[in-house]
C-alpha cells in the first residue's frame, strides 16, 4: 500500500532462516519501503520495520493477520488502517504465535510516527472478522472497501477450537472448510465507521478476487468500483480453500452507487487477450493520461489456479472504457504470486509463494513493460504502453 513517501506492507507469511534451517511463519512487522530516493534491490536497497507487539492505549496487541486489508487514509494524520484477516495456521511452533482471538476488533489503526496502535469495536456491523476479500480504497474521500471474503478457522477462536468426531475419533476433515461471506464492507476511515452493503446484484460471494476504484470513470462523480476474478462457492455446502468455481475475466462487474442505501452492480463484457481464471492475483490501478480522465488502464499480475495447480507469472492490462485486455508480459522465472503496489510509473513486488532468497524485491515498469531491480525516483510519469496503444488506439 502506497502512502508517500513510502510503501507499507503488513501481515502475510515470511521465510525465516537460521544457518541451514528454513521455515515459514507469520510476518511480525510493518515494513516501510522508501520511494522518494533511487535504489537498487541488489546493492543499496533498504527498508524500515516496526514490530506489531507494542504497547498501545487499549492494552492489547494487534493480531498478526494474513489476507486482510491495509488502507492509506491519506488525510488521517499519520494513521494507516488494517481490517480483517486470518491467523496463520500452517506453523504454530513459533513462540510468538497465538491462536485466533475472540475479540470485536476487526479494525485497527497504526500511527506511523508514534508507533501507537488503536482498535475499534465494529462488531455491531462486522460481527465476524472476514478475510480473503477484495480490497480497494477511495483515498480522496477516505473510504476503504472490502468485498465479500470468507470466514475460516483462523478467523475465530470458537471455530479454531471446534473438533469434529467420526466414530469417536477426532478428525481434521473440517480444517480446510470455509464460509463465504456476502456483502461489501465500506469503511469511513475518517470516523472509523463501517457500513455493510448488499452485493446481491453482484451474484454469489467470492474470495481472492480483484477490486479497483477509478475516481472519475463512470456515471457518478463518486467514481466506480470494478470487481473481477476470484473464486465462488459450488453451492454444495462443503466449501474449502480450493474447491470453488473460478470466475473468468470475460466479464467484470461495476458499481457506481456504493454510497446509496440500495447498491447495484452491473456486468460488462470484456474483449482482447483475456487472462485465464485465477485467484490471489495482484491488482494495481494505473493513472489516467488524458485531461478529461475518460481513459484508464489497470494491471493484474500473477495468481494461482487451485484446480490445475498452475502458478502464473504474467501481466495483463484492462483498458477502459473499451474494456479490452492486453497481455503485457509472460515469463517463467518467478515462482509464485508476488505482492505488488503501484508507484510512479513502476510496480514494486515482494516475495512469492515459495519465498525468495535474498531481498525478494523486483520492479515492473508499467510504461515499458519490463522487469528490473532499479527504482528511478525521478523517472517520467506513467504513460500508456505502446502495446496498449496499438490495440485500442490513442496516445
Automatic annotation (TrEMBL):
Keyword terms of this UniProt record: Kelch repeat, Repeat
Residue ranges of the TM segments: none
Cleaved signal peptide residues: none
Protein name as catalogued: Galactose oxidase/kelch beta-propeller
Species name: Macrophomina phaseolina (strain MS6)
